[in-house]
Amino acid sequence: MTVGLFNLRMRLVDKEFRGGTDDETPDHIARDLSNAIAELERRNPSSWPKVAGIGLGLPGIVETDFEGRQTLYAESLGWPPVPVASLLDQGLPVRAENGAATQAKAEQWFGVARGSSTAVVAMLGRGVGLGVITNGELYCGASGSAAEWGHLSIDPQGPICRCGRRGCLEAFLGSQALLEEWKGRGGTLPSDERIAIRALFDTGDAGDSDANALIERATSLLGTALGGLVNLYNPQGVIVGGWVGTLFMERRRTEIESAMRVAALERPGSQTDLYVGSVGENSVTLGAAILPLEDLVCSRRPSNSIASAFVRRNLEGTPDRRTHGQGLGFAEPATR
User: Fold this and answer.
1) Are 154 and 169 spatial neighbours (Cβ–Cβ below 8 Å)?
2) How many CA atoms lie within 13 A of 248 on its CB side?
3) End of a domain among 243, 276, 309?
4) Are the CB atoms for 167 and 159 separated by under 8 Å?
5) How far is residue 96's CA from residue 302's CA, in Å, rounded to a whole number?
6) What confidence tens digit (pLDDT) does each residue in 246-280 have?
């Protein structure tokens, strides 16, 4: 996990890393998170009294009840429902969202989705997720589980996904799925997941037919799935991020866009453009840190466009000298 301390202009002041194993439990996450926050407090004693709150980018569905209590449903990790409040006891306001949603928020505020009223932001990493921006706001659905794109089944007889169902998009495009298939074809790769995915692409680019066939199939599937999003949402922009998504765009952007254009209806396809996420590796953490900043200017659950516009306006111009503070952003690595 990455825990970052941001100032009110959303500039990263300091960050701390913890955990990162596949078998972490909610208790492990809570312990690592508390330890990381304590270390940031130790290194930044003068800033700590001004911390406004904590934002979390979490791996799963985050629901908020009518009293503001939040619960995480991380089915793909095999966790029971987890009250978000149980993860932290820092005496600070806490708000959580799905990691793909916080990435979309970061792109909306500071990246290529800035100024777009409608956009889709795809996240590819260990898992696959999506953030949908419509009318300038993140779309959450009835209770917070909208846009679980990675668990859209595209083949009922396909491979088993981490969620336990067959044929989910994630079971074809997530890093673990890609590496498992490569191993099944006899491939040997480094133990580090990120290095291994890059090695898979390098092997394919070097002429290995099995590796190249695997990457070409995933590329075609990704482009086709993005074309489906164009037909569903009529976005101004389709943005691909996450560490796996960024690599796909670096190596196969032309092929992805071609498959997207073929899959999209002609009219909505002509009204959208394909982009690679521009915020960078801290996008989920940055988006999480925006959550307490929004809460700073809006006491109710802030999907509030007035609050967002107010904060953005202050960020774009001279900071409001009456407003002081810091924000913490947290991204659990399994968020993608």
Assistant:
1) yes
2) 33
3) 276
4) yes
5) 12
6) 999 999 999 999 999 999 999 999 999 999 999 98
Residue 167's domain is classified under what CATH number? 3.30.420.40
Cβ–Cβ under 8 Å, residues 162 and 176: yes
**3-state SS of 89-113?**
CCCCCEEEEEHHHHHHHHHHHHCCC
**Hey, is 286 helix, strand or coil?**
helix
Angle at 323 between CA 113 and CA 97, to 5 degrees: 45
Q: What is the DSSP letter of 77?
A: G
pLDDT at 214: 97
Please give the Cα distance from 251 to 275 (Å, whole number).
Answer: 14
Report yes or no: 79 and 40 within 8 Å, Cβ to Cβ: no
Range of the domain at 47: 2-103+281-335
Please indicate, yes or no, if residue 108 is contained in any of the structural domains: no
- Among 276, 291, 315, give the residue marking a domain's end: 276
Count structural domains, the chain. Answer: 2
pTM for the full predicted model: 0.87
Residue 246 sits in the same domain as residue 166: yes
Task: Kindly state whether residues 261 and 292 are assigned to the same domain.
Answer: no
Structure tokens at 43: 């290194």
| Pairwise CA distance, residues 88 & 193, whole Å | 28
Closest among 90, 89, 119 to 104, alpha carbons compared = 119
Phi first, then psi, for residue 206 (nearest 5°) are -80, -5
pLDDT digits (tens, 9 = 90+) for 66-106: 888 999 999 999 999 999 999 988 888 899 999 999 999 99
The pLDDT of 232-248, averaged and rounded, is 97
13 vs 17, 266, 279, 287, CA distance in Å?
A: 14, 45, 16, 15
